[in-house]
Design goal:
4 copies of one chain form a homotetramer.
Chain A (H helix, E strand, L loop, with lengths): L7 H6 L2 H21 L5 H7 L9 H11 L2 H13 L13 H37 L4 E6 L2 E7 H25 L2 E2 L13 H10 L3 E2 L10 H28 L6 E2 L19 H14 L2 H6 L10 H30 L1 E2 L1 H8 L8 H10 L4 H18 L3 H6 L2 H4 L4 H6 L4 H4 L2 H9 L2
Parallel strand pairs in A: 3-4
Antiparallel strand pairs in A: 1-2, 5-6
Helix pairs in contact in A: 2-3, 2-6, 2-8, 4-5, 6-7, 6-12, 7-9, 7-20, 9-10, 9-12, 10-12, 14-15
Family (chains A, B, C, D): Belongs to the lyase 1 family. Adenylosuccinate lyase subfamily.
Keywords (chains A, B, C, D): Lyase, Purine biosynthesis
InterPro entries (chains A, B, C, D): AdenyloSucc_lyase_C, Fumarase/histidase_N, Fumarate_lyase_CS, Fumarate_lyase_fam, Fumarate_lyase_N, L-Aspartase-like, Pur_lyase
């Protein structure tokens, strides 16, 4: 976790304080359930809630762990210091450490998912706003980095919106994947604890009971979760790359907002660099790198080995914190992106009229010229624009083979930009609804 | 694609013949829609269906492509050879190559998903059958590779079933992700083709229209698809690793079926190696390796670049073919797995009674001994079993501190295996339903 | 392996014919060594060489393998059909299948490395030629996609040359990593075969004996090999991305060669797309995807498990074939790249004189203006160029605070391009030698 | 970076204090060189060294950066607070931020490599010691997890030693890869700074000048560095997996050292889990996950984009810290590994004599029995051991077809363990030298 790429809310989810708080709640709720079942005395269960408002002492727990080399035992020992060791004696009864650890991890991931969803919502709002703002801002569409046909800046935002909205749905599903808890004992048989305890605790904490666990909650759930984050990060990269392209000197159709105090370069004061989106490109790589380890974590030996643990200690916080930060950074970039419609037009006209070649090709075909001949005619005039800087329309009007098939008015009409934007509303309706 | 790890049905989906057939159907349906709109003459649309029963000549198309260096143009030229070049002149009108290519890829992926779902169903059936067959076959549960507490072989199969069932749901979702088509023209604006054509063609082919495309269908869909395959492959690895462990000489609780003619080793004729599950472990790595490239494919430049194409030409077939093969190999392994319940009991008793230590610990605690003392008492007797091969129950019965808290009958009762299997039915109900 | 991305020489290395030929040579040489040691009769060793010119029948071997389910046994059976089953009886004695398989794989990888080195040499030659050709072709250097200071096209080629030359050295080292053979028996103890056989066979085949093997050659060697290919592929991507940027419509400083017959787009005849370098970008992803599986292959269980095998059957051929193809495609692109020096100058002057701001900043500082003031002065004039299209030099000459520190001649001198290219020769000397 | 998996020495390399110290040294040495060249006054260069013993104030620098949003400018501003802003005015002249940042990163990586080499040396020493200690400790070799033929525990250690020694050589090469510095200005042309400064600074700091840089040092170097760490991590995993297998209850040939205070499980006091090697398995995944992002960092746009930076801020420290920790954890595990030679013998004899089947097979062949018949004879007796728990030797002695070919003494001789260990010295000589 790199502070410069962190937001406090997400960091807090992964703090030891939060972790111990969740541990406490699981243990306390489990005692309630055990008392209800008559397995432990009611007063002992109640006593545990005495620590309800305690902020657990992380340093003290670490101190105990240094001796026991076991984190849950260290916590329970510390808890007993608050509740009284006699009254605390039934805490954790019939449970295994992983019951606590795995249920906690999933609670943290659910909370992380909630923050990420909020981040995605901010991105979605920004994209939608900018999409409608630039619904009709014409801009050249490019395939292979080469001018193709006109499109609008609004469509670009709309497709990022649709992609992010898909990402959001995937994240909702991924959140559901890890919204389970398990209190099933050493190998998942409930030998020493009634399934009711699991049901009860999960209900209190907003989780579903894991239908069949071993000592641990199965890691295919977490693999799916991190894989989903990897896909979302790739969509962030997609938007970031588009903005980086738009900002490059020769294109300059948009720029990241440049605050007054900011210095672009220690050496070149005129520079305004798309550093936020470049940064997002890197952050996407960081999020994605958790995917394979999360998948390698699935095949634990028998009822569990602990190889997954160190991986999750790293990627649990790091990946969610990085993605959370990236979403908000992206939202900020989109919200404040400075857009230059004039430059969009200027760029589109770099090769005068050439982007309309497809329309002319079609018109020739429909006027009865063979596909091959149409292609040849268009290409020969296009080449003059390309190589000599000629104006496409002028050349077409001067080409007798072309004018034999199309009248000047028909040719003229092919250069109307409205032709290319006529379905923008249809697409917006598909993306944003009626 | 490695023939030895391929099944013909999946290979067929990726054959050039299948591809050209889908191209043809897209073009023919698009002509119908265009004719309906009055954009092209009805007779030209009808003429295209003359090729309905043609098996397209792959070699001929390759020959044409060698000249044009463009696959779709090569195909259209070949199609014209069948339909007549005059009648074929409106084919592909207003469309761009990617309209055909991307829609085709998604159709292939949907079909691949259907085959994979069938493979998963076979695995699920096998796992369910074996789960019920061995619902009560007691077996030691292991954490960290170390004996923990008893469980049953049925529970092991049940958890693999639950995991695969989750994988199936994920695959259904992933299939839905890529069940879209696009016929939206050069940069996705429908400038030269009415959205109705896209609607019509998609409907004919069982797809949803991509709400907003560029020249291509957005690649976050494919990233999600391959990420999902990676998770499923990791679950296959999980099962494979379990079986490999069970088959190792010292454990021998199960073995892959060994056909009479098979030779395990050129040098050691007695060997029966878990080569199928080892192979599955490797195949899982191969499936997983497509995940990152699929994610790297998301950030295409502007309205598209073609970097994704070579990646998909490889991972499209390779990953689905490998996973399909792996699912059926896994199903076969599970169906025919030879299980040795006697060895399971023998292994469990390697350290006589030691696996019951947790129960004794709990019993001591509940009998009023402090947690720390209980732990100490259990551990000191356990160590005798571990180090001197003693019998745990005998030691406990001879330990006055233990017998001060628990009567011999109470101690005896702790060694009842039924204690550990009492909730198996509950878990089975959770997994398989009532 | 995708035929369209394959070159025959590399494909041949991975053909079954080549594989069986290498198997044969290993077995035959091993027989010679065994005969020399007196372990088997000389005539039996000699008899094996009767098959020296045999092209082994792959279909027949497959047929036998269908029964035995063991490839080496199938091959030996077939060999006996040529040599005579009595005379062939000592073939493979004391050896284990992996002795043959692993030594063969390494021979194939060494040969693959040799082809890759040849491919890199072709790339290096092309880069060097173009570097010297454009040593002094001035071009704007860009950081963050934004104009920075002038550099030369030759320097761009020179740095790609230096990077590829590093790649070449790494590949030489990687080749050395896998240039080992092992004939050490079932678990690597030479129990049934004298180490002399290994020494002898390795010497005949240009390999080093693996110092300590198990049943297999350790896979860290292969992991290093594939990791190295992944780095080289990333360097290919680096060059490809640069060319794609240069070719984009707004930049157009270079173009992939566009052959007369070639059609850029079915819809837009004027388009010339950088499809080769886009393809290389995708191929780089494909090469890289082998790295993690190759690393996952390292931790085989005990003296070996066979999980690595399926992985290597795929990535062995696929990765080397793809990289080989990519190197030659890249070489072709570089050799024929069409470069537009005029456009380079035009682009550089897009913001008139602004790229010289760093020089002016330094000059002001050296003339005694404080760093902060210098920065402010440069920035305020730069902003006029940026925002109003002014000419930087003109603005500076008109700014009294600037002219108070620098004379017109001094300002003038800051706009000399030679200033930026004065060390090109030094750098070339570093890269290409005196 | 996870504190629990960190060692202070490596953490210190990545502290802001270390970073600023290196920045300072680069700037100060650069001033010396500039003064030598006569570019800046000697007294200004000397003045910079006034800060020689300053511990830079990280909080203050952060404060300045919050305004400037540029870290190097923030540092230089702070440096001026120590040196005097007038005297500091020539600091950084002609340099670009990346000159400082990239050279610093490489110095940190070189230092990290040095610590890693020390860690590897500790592992190598431990492996060598244990190898010689158990050179002749016989143990069954296993392929596919199935008993094969005897080997020795010493050979296992020896092969891990050889693998780690290869890793060490690779790390030495990787260290050399990133042992370069660059002070070449905004786009690498040395326009504003003489190459002598780069030469001088690199020499002072133990680096080689980067032959051709852009604004940055080329990232193929770093990709190679992290790829190498990934391979080493995979070798750690290899050793960890072996130990985990040895410790599993049914095998128990070795155990991680279990300190007196340690508790294996909150529930099962008898458990001794191989948690350190399981942890190493997870750490290996964490190290490996940096490889792909490091490769994705290679293709920076033009003369640089900053996408690599966030990646390196994470993987620079995290990967080296994790690997450093893992190496020392591994060394500790190997040094203190408790080995059970008796259990090794017991395991080997689980299937009485069966592991000698290969020898018998060979003996039969050499006695003139055909390969097929020999195989059949061995297999039929082996199956009795396997299925009925018979003793292999006894069965062979009772099989008339066997005794027709081999005398009882000859059969007897095949069961001599010395046969399998006779070349151990040869292998040790290969690995450890004479």
């Amino acid at each position: 976790m790199i502070p410069r790429y962190s937001r406090p809310d997400m960091v807090a989810i992964w703090s030891p304080e939060t972790k111990f708080r969740i541990w406490y709640e699981i243990e306390a709720h489990a005692c309630d359930a055990q008392a209800e079942l008559g397995v432990i005395p009611k007063e002992n269960a109640e006593a545990v809630w005495k620590a309800k408002d305690v902020q657990f002492d992380v340093a003290r727990i670490d101190e105990i762990e240094a001796v026991t080399k076991h984190d849950v035992i260290a916590f329970l020992t510390h808890l007993a210091e608050h509740v009284g060791s006699d009254q605390a004696r039934f805490v954790h009864q019939g449970m295994t450490s992983s019951d606590v650890l795995d249920t906690t991890l999933n609670i943290q991931l659910v909370r992380a998912a909630d923050l990420l969803l909020a981040g995605m919502d901010r991105v979605l709002t920004a994209l939608k706003t900018r999409a409608f703002e630039h619904k009709d801002t014409v801009r050249i569409g490019r395939s292979h980095g080469i001018h193709a046909e006109p499109t609008t800046m609004g469509l670009t935002f709309a497709r990022f919106y649709a992609e992010m909205a898909r990402g959001r749905s995937r994240l909702v599903a991924a959140r559901e994947e890890i919204r389970t808890g398990a209190i099933s004992g050493a190998v998942g048989t409930f030998a020493n604890i009634d399934p009711y305890v699991e049901d009860y605790v999960c209900k209190q904490l907003g989780l579903e009971p894991e239908p069949v666990s071993t000592q641990v909650i199965p890691r295919d759930r977490h693999a799916m979760f991190f894989a989903t984050l990897g896909v979302i990060a790739s969509s962030i990269e997609n938007i970031a790359i588009e903005i980086r392209h738009m900002q490059r000197t020769e294109v300059l159709e948009a720029e990241e907002f440049f605050s007054p105090g900011q210095k672009g370069s220690s050496a070149m004061p005129h520079k305004r660099n798309p550093v936020l989106t470049e940064n997002l490109t890197g952050l996407a790589r960081l999020v994605r790198m958790s995917v394979i380890p999360a998948m390698e974590n699935v095949a634990l030996w028998h009822e569990r080995d602990i190889s997954h643990s160190s991986v999750e200690r790293a990627i649990g916080p790091d990946t969610t914190i990085t993605l959370d930060f990236a979403l908000h950074r992206l939202a900020g970039v989109v919200e404040k992106l400075v857009i230059y419609p004039d430059n969009m037009l200027k760029n589109m006209n770099k090769f005068k009229g050439l982007v309309m070649s497809q329309r002319v090709l079609l018109a020739l075909t429909q006027a009865g010229v063979s596909r091959e001949d149409s292609y040849r005619l268009v290409q020969r005039n296009a080449m003059k624009v390309w190589e000599q800087g000629a104006d496409f329309k002028t050349e077409l009007l001067a080409d007798p083979e072309v004018t034999a098939a199309l009248s000047p008015a028909e040719i003229e009409e092919k250069f109307d930009l409205g032709y290319h934007t006529k379905h923008v509303d249809t697409i917006f309706r598909r993306v944003f609804g009626a």
